[in-house]
Amino acid sequence: MAYAIRFHETGGPEVLKWEEVPVGMPGPGQVRLRHEAVGLNFADTYFRSGLYPVALPAGMGVEAAGVVEAVGPDVDQLLVGDRVTYTGFINTLGAYSTERLVPASALIRLPDDIECATAAAMTMRGLTASYLMRRIHAFKPGDSILLHAAAGGVGLIVSQWARLLGIKVIGTVSSAAKAEVARAHGCDHVIDYSHEDVAKRVRELTEGAGVNVVFDSVGKDTFEASLNSLARRGLMVCVGTASGPIPPFNPQLLAMKGSLYLTRPALADYIADPAEKDALASELFGHVAAGRIKIEINQRYALPDAAQAHRDLESRRTTGSSIFVV
């Protein structure tokens, strides 16, 4: 039998339960996948808390990597034994599991030089970084960005990718230890928001101009400072709400602060087209395989310890990427 983390009610980490689950054989368009590693993402806490509503009881997690054990009818692009990864199909929660059925269309075949642990640590974060750097804005050398949560999983990949493109990165962190991590991965300047005024410091570092783009995964607590850090006609990219949803505001505020642009993208809309997903994944895997972008797996958990993993994540005790080892 297979095992999985499931939740029967929304709430804190304590609602996560380790349960035996049936899997069965794959149907049309499906494969049976044996997981080797599972990704831990902050978005997982949104499902558990009820911020992202799902029918209960439900599985948990949307990112994992493993080996194809069986293929169903009408699946001709994958074979038993193929190593694959996946992320982002929100309506099919269940990655926190030892085995499961997965739509074949969601899977990305792994290159030989990318391990399953690395894939589970980077598929969601890496594809997010990929669309942020290659689709969301026409970056050019010399541009500047403000990157919140610079020592987090997405932050470390974005800062390394930005360095490859000649982009100046100002990162924000919550501690001196995280500041060192951020600097080591490409941040030109680091702001500790626990005791520094972010917008004021950004203006000092940019000689009053502000940055071209802000990547803000924090939300409520940083929204105003992010807007105040942008150059005229700059782009505010809201990529997460770790501190809570952004309160409603009058769009006139964007005009008052310099004719700013604002977007709230979702990964699902950048990997919905198979060709675009393959292109984003191919460039990501190429950078990682060549060593141009390093994936830091700084926390490893056993699947039954999912509740503790969520506590660590929400208390901001983690850096880089976290995975479950199956």
TrEMBL record:
<dbReference type="InterPro" id="IPR036291">
    <property type="entry name" value="NAD(P)-bd_dom_sf"/>
</dbReference>
<dbReference type="InterPro" id="IPR020843">
    <property type="entry name" value="ER"/>
</dbReference>
<dbReference type="GO" id="GO:0035925">
    <property type="term" value="F:mRNA 3'-UTR AU-rich region binding"/>
</dbReference>
<dbReference type="Pfam" id="PF08240">
    <property type="entry name" value="ADH_N"/>
</dbReference>
<dbReference type="InterPro" id="IPR013149">
    <property type="entry name" value="ADH-like_C"/>
</dbReference>
<dbReference type="GO" id="GO:0005829">
    <property type="term" value="C:cytosol"/>
</dbReference>
<dbReference type="GO" id="GO:0003960">
    <property type="term" value="F:quinone reductase (NADPH) activity"/>
</dbReference>
<dbReference type="InterPro" id="IPR047618">
    <property type="entry name" value="QOR-like"/>
</dbReference>
<keyword id="KW-0521">NADP</keyword>
<feature type="domain" description="Enoyl reductase (ER)">
    <location>
        <begin position="11"/>
        <end position="324"/>
    </location>
</feature>
<keyword id="KW-0560">Oxidoreductase</keyword>
<dbReference type="GO" id="GO:0070402">
    <property type="term" value="F:NADPH binding"/>
</dbReference>
<dbReference type="Pfam" id="PF00107">
    <property type="entry name" value="ADH_zinc_N"/>
</dbReference>
<protein>
    <submittedName>
        <fullName>Alcohol dehydrogenase</fullName>
    </submittedName>
</protein>
<dbReference type="InterPro" id="IPR011032">
    <property type="entry name" value="GroES-like_sf"/>
</dbReference>
<dbReference type="InterPro" id="IPR002364">
    <property type="entry name" value="Quin_OxRdtase/zeta-crystal_CS"/>
</dbReference>
<dbReference type="GO" id="GO:0008270">
    <property type="term" value="F:zinc ion binding"/>
</dbReference>
<dbReference type="InterPro" id="IPR013154">
    <property type="entry name" value="ADH-like_N"/>
</dbReference>
